[in-house]
Amino acid sequence: MGVHHAAVNHTENDIKTISKPELAAQSATEEVSITSAHTALPAVSLIRKGHRMHPFVMAIATATQMFAPVSDAVPKLNVEATCRGSVEADKEMGLSLPQSFDKCMRDENSAREQLGPIWSSYPSTVRTQCEGEAISAGEASYVDLLTCLQMNDGSVTTSVTTLRGASKKKRTSK
Questions:
Q1: In the chain, what are the domain boundaries?
Q2: Measured between alpha carbons, how far is 90 from 12 in angstroms, rounded to an integer?
Q3: pTM confidence score
Q4: Coil, strand or helix: which one is 33?
Q5: DSSP assigned state of 97
Q6: CA-CA distances (angstroms) from residue 155 to 40, 51, 78, 145, 149?
Q7: d(Cα 87, Cα 68) in Å, to the nearest integer?
């Protein structure tokens, strides 16, 4: 599910998919435009004819694109805002046992602590997917991140969490 970049030659109007290293390796004097396959934005010219890019700058640009590592550290999430929103939502729903802000923060911090020793043992694809789910809709939750990891990879065994925190999956009816 990688992002592909298309190089557009405006004189011939053909489109072909090329990788970032191939794009960087093209002659600096050629006009190269990039459009995202996921947007309808017009092509933007990156390098104009006659303007040479210094080889050192081109090497740096290529190297930074080739080595974009997935972090081995647990991501930093703003769970305080999410806990505040969760407490308000509990009140609005009229739950008989709403969760307090302090309890929500304790659950979120506990989930973050549990993630520390196991985070790097999961494949980067699973970590990336779960991080995306844990921050969906602008509501960040370590509880959701931990739950996602536990449910998505059967090769790493951890006990299932009983934490509620600001998890989007904790919402219950009256």
A1: 5-66, 79-152
A2: 59
A3: 0.52
A4: strand
A5: S
A6: 40, 52, 29, 17, 11
A7: 37
